[in-house]
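REQUEST FORM: STRUCTURE PREDICTION
Request ID: SP-0412
Submitted by: Lab K.M.
Chain count: 1
Length (residues): 192
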Amino acid sequence: TRKVFRFLKFLEVFDEILALSSSSSAQRSFYFLEIIKLATSFFYFLLDNFIWLTRVNVFDSTRVSQFDKLVRFKRHMSFTRCVLTLVQESQLYLRSRSEISRIIKDILISQIGSSDSKSSVSRIVKLRDVQRKSFMSILHQVTKSIMLMYTIGVLTPKYLSEVGFSILGLFSNLYSVHKYITGTDQFGLLTK
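STATUS: Completed
RESULT:
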């Protein structure tokens, strides 16, 4: 049933690529990573839909040569997407951390109690929220990366047991539910 919600999602990702390419407010490193991540997501969801339609016999899998290689390539695309998101969230975390340090230094240098310091404190609160969400996303991407390395075959069962794999999957799913409920989307928060 989860595949039904992913059906034609590559078109939604394509719209995101178009919207991002027309915007000029994004910081350069975030923009580059986001475009590559979205392109990877586009091909991932395209392959995911094709593989799903083949498995439900819309397409004949015997006519698709090297079907197993497509499935493996889809997993590699997913791993690449995880790594890119990990890099992006790490950058966001570090930038928010340095921005908080800069604001605190400015508050200490300026007069305490001024209206600027009050707006700076509210900015710190927002940045701390960005930092917490980025940290949780980093943990999630590391978890997904470990699971994908196991699925791809980089990690063997001697390094990750089925119980460990299940615990990582549980954490990943709980984070996804939390992300869905809170509507967390980190990209662009520091450019505002």
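NOTES: Residues 100 and 123 are 8 Å apart (CA to CA).
Reviewed by: T.R.
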